[in-house]
Amino acid sequence: MKMSERLEFPPEHNLAYDVDAYRADFPILAEKIHGKPLVYLDNAGSTQRPAQVTQAMVQFEAHAYANIHRGVHELSVRATERYEAARQTVARFLNAASRDEIVFTRGGTEAINLVAASWGRSQLRAGDEIILTTLEHHSNIVPWQMVAGATGAVIRVAPINDVGEVTVEAIAGLLSPRTRMVAFAHVSNALGTLLPAQRIITAIRAYEKKDQPIRVLIDGCQAVARMPVDVRALDVDFYAFSGHKLYGPTGIGVLYGKKALLNTMPPYQTGGGMIASVSFEGTSFAPPPGRFEAGTPAITQAVGLAAAIDYVTGIGLDRIAHYEDTLVRYALQKLTHIDGLTIIGADAQRAGVISFVMKNAHPHDVGTILDRQGVAVRAGHHCAQPLMEHLGVPATARASFGLYNTHEEVDALAQALHKVQEIFA
Amino acid sequence: MSDDLRDLYQDLILDHSKHPRNFAKPGQVNHEALGHNPLCGDRLALYLYVDDGNIIRDIGFQGSGCAISVASASMMTEMLKGKPVQEAEHLFDYMHAACTGGETNDATIDEDARDRIEALAGVRHYPMRVKCATLPWHTLQAALKDEQKVSTE
């Protein structure tokens, strides 16, 4: 198993991690909530942005903003260069073979919808099989249901085991000559479960036939901010993530796709910016990635995303992963001592997220009581209703960590949870 | 407990959430609806038996939800048992106004009902929780109109 799949770290990564310095980069962390210091533990929902990201966007807007790929004027040239440089930054970040493999989207959701609509509708036939897992976010379920409905393809669901894990065997056991797509989350947003992506793909590649390839899509929304990701080492066909869970802005996301595959795919949306030539007799489309970026994209947000990637790679994803892991271990230890609190899911394969329920207190009440003490957590089904159903809970409370959270904040969470106990004793 | 949390989680609310009243399906039922708040997972089934004179003879609920929605449902059933349907509609309007900061000067609402609704109206300081308190009442409306399902989001 690869290091990145077990979150184990060599000793040289135990270098001092200057969390106070990083915290100072995030103005919002100084905010008071209901008179209490903010303890922001909803990072799986959205991360906060460092000043470096907002400044990059402000600077860009002040000095280089115009529409891209259109004008001959200087600003359009500057904007185009910055937008394409952002694409290069993303390509490097994922270790893609080329920046042409990076499509900018509105977010992770749109990236998956793009594959389902473009690849799915053009490639899938009645009876073809799409494999998903129980713990998928709705955005990695519903687009496939739509394409299954339109093509007659069938969805098969790999179950999780008792501790919330998806094993390689659970997916391998569903592979069949009709399997065309396997789509799964790299890290579960609801439980924090880290899937053994590398081994899953190895098993798929061992099974597939040359003339019947199986495509693999990974929903990496919860992974990219928590661990290094190498799409070529993974040998994944598509990898999707959003900017706002990576300390970048909303309104921007990424679809990585292998160049040979993107080349064969029809447009997802059509309009300006994605054509080679248009006449009323017919239209020819631009090559990827432009083919998939109809209309004016989120230019400033792409610049912001690149700044966010520079920020996290400046710290080092492996160091962030290690730090968050120590934080999660500490939190698990603290939370285990709270009466009536049950942690959901495995802790051997966990990345950045702790989902829990409390006896006598509904997650929504937990969320409200924590909020009044300045502690922001998510309460609900986390857009994973099939998973909640499987677990037999209507909802959970979820604390999710980011690069700026501290051990003291974990203490504040534990203390706030004692307050819940007090009220609902 | 800090004062504002005490505002929301008053003793009356906690009591009803821990020991919900009329928490069962009545023997005889001629109106029912399922109230669902997909965002928080609250799911309440409400059952009524309304007689020919339009009096709510029996009412009960089942399901799971947060303290606010369960307490609201529990108190609602207590308020409505034996009341004419028309009065239930007045109470709905009053409840809605109380929880959203609207006018609450309907003189037909008795003091007991006012006290209960006032306890729930603490949610008006918690915008995200208003729908928890009003879910049972929306479900009531759906049940009386014989709509099977209602969803608040």
List the helices and strands and how they pair.
The complex is a heterodimer of chains A (425) and B (153).
Chain A: H1 3-6, H2 19-24, E1 32-33, E2 36-37, E3 39-40, H3 51-63, H4 74-94, E4 102-105, H5 108-123, E5 129-133, H6 142-151, E6 154-158, H7 168-172, E7 179-185, H8 197-207, E8 215-219, H9 231-234, E9 238-242, E10 253-257, H10 259-264, E11 275-279, E12 282-285, H11 299-315, H12 317-336, E13 341-344, E14 353-358, H13 363-371, E15 375-376, E16 378-380, H14 385-391, E17 396-400, H15 407-424
Parallel strand pairs in A: 3-15, 5-6, 5-7, 7-8, 8-9
Antiparallel strand pairs in A: 1-2, 4-10, 9-10, 11-12, 13-14, 14-17, 16-17
Chain B: H1 3-8, H2 11-18, E1 31-37, E2 42-50, E3 56-64, H3 67-80, H4 85-100, H5 111-120, H6 130-144, E4 149-151
Parallel strand pairs in B: 1-4
Antiparallel strand pairs in B: 1-2, 2-3
Helix pairs in contact in B: 2-3, 3-5, 3-6, 4-5, 4-6
